[in-house]
C-alpha cells in the first residue's frame, strides 16, 4: 500500500516543476563555443539599439548599416594581449562579412567580470561599435554573433579571456 505524499513534499515537488522552465531557459541561453563556427570569423559594425548589461554575459542588439563593408584597416588593427591563446592577427586577416542580410544582430559579449577586467565602459543605446566573432554553423537560426573582439571608442577589447 502506497502512502500519500505529505503536503510539504507535494509543495516541494510542485515548486521544482515551476522552476524547471526558468532553469532550462538559462541553460540554453548560456551556451559554449561549440555551437559557433570558429573557422569563419565575421565582422559587423553598427549602432547598439538595445543593451543588456547582465550575466551570464552582456549582450547588445546591433543594427548594421545597409552597405556593410570590411574596414580597410581591419587587418592591421592592434589587438590586446589576452590570457587565452587566441590567434588575433589571423582572425583579423580571415574576417568576412556575414552572408545573411539581417539588419539586426544579437551580439553576445563576455561575462560582466571579464568586461570589468577589460574596463569596458557600459555601452549605451546609440553607441557605435564593431565586433569580430562567430555565428552559428551555416549561419542558421537567429542572427547571433559571439564576439571575440569588441571595437569601441578607438579601443579593442578581447572577449574570450581576461587581459594578460
UniProtKB/TrEMBL annotation:
Pfam families: DUF6152 (PF19649). This is Uncharacterized protein. It comes from Caldimonas thermodepolymerans.
Amino acid at each position: 500500500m502506497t502512502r500519500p505524499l505529505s503536503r510539504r513534499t507535494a509543495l516541494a515537488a510542485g515548486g521544482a516543476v515551476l522552476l524547471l522552465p526558468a532553469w532550462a531557459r538559462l541553460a540554453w541561453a548560456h551556451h559554449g563555443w561549440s555551437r559557433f563556427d570558429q573557422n569563419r570569423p565575421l565582422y559587423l559594425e553598427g549602432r547598439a539599439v538595445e543593451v543588456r548589461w547582465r550575466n551570464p554575459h552582456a549582450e547588445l542588439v546591433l543594427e548594421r548599416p545597409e552597405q556593410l563593408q570590411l574596414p580597410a584597416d581591419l587587418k592591421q588593427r592592434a589587438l590586446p594581449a589576452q590570457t587565452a591563446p587566441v590567434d588575433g592577427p589571423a582572425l583579423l586577416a580571415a574576417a568576412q562579412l556575414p552572408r545573411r542580410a539581417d539588419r539586426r544582430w544579437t551580439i553576445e559579449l563576455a561575462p560582466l567580470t571579464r568586461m570589468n577586467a577589460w574596463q569596458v565602459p557600459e555601452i549605451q543605446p546609440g553607441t557605435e561599435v564593431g565586433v569580430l566573432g562567430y555565428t552559428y554553423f551555416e549561419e542558421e537560426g537567429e542572427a547571433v554573433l559571439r564576439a571575440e573582439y569588441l571595437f569601441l571608442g578607438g579601443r579593442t577589447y578581447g572577449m574570450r579571456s581576461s587581459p594578460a
